[in-house]
Design goal:
Layout lengths: L1 E5 L5 H18 L17 E8 L2 E12 L2 E9 L8 H15 L4 E7 L3 H9 L3 E2 L12 E7 L8
Parallel strand pairs: 4-5
Antiparallel strand pairs: 1-2, 2-3, 3-4, 5-7, 6-7
């Protein structure tokens, strides 16, 4: 069974999955994602970090943090290789969007890379459209920026 739970950004499950993600970035891009992150940015109410557990095994991660009034950013979306191809990324993204909307955000943005075609396909098929570049990688040719409006007050039922 796959379940999604909130955990602190510094929780051992999160640390393990983020380490796996950074290792994948090193393979694909030659270096980790160097975006500055303060673990406290993912603490409610201004943020949230989620872990997807498959029969108790942490296999997926994703979080959001506040970028500005009504604007949240999805960060550290990842599904472990051992659990890919089963729809867990789509479930995680949907839960991130729902929790953002429930928290009152009306727009979400994210950044991915050109060497992550699976992520690009997920975001585009989930209603994300290219958006304005921002942050550390704003001037990188391999960076891809996406955004999506959210329905405020979405029920979690």
């Amino acid at each position: 069974m796959f379940v999604i739970e909130a955990h602190p950004f510094a929780h051992p499950y999160a640390v393990r999955l983020i380490d796996e993600l950074q290792a994948e970035y090193r393979l694909r891009y030659g270096s980790p994602d160097e975006t500055l992150i303060d673990a406290g940015e993912f603490d409610p109410p201004a943020g949230l970090f989620l872990i997807g557990l498959l029969d108790g095994d942490p296999v997926a991660a994703g979080g959001w943090r506040r970028l500005g009034p009504g604007l949240g950013e999805v960060k550290r979306m990842y599904v472990a290789e051992r659990a890919r191809g089963r729809g867990f990324a789509r479930l995680m993204l949907a839960e991130l969007e729902t929790t953002l909307a429930t928290a009152g955000y009306d727009r979400v943005v994210l950044m991915t890379g050109a060497l992550q075609p699976e992520a690009i396909a997920l975001y585009e098929s989930s209603g994300y459209a290219p958006s304005e570049a921002y942050g550390l990688y704003a001037d990188y040719s391999d960076a891809r920026f996406y955004g999506k409006p959210l329905a405020i007050g979405v029920s979690r039922e």
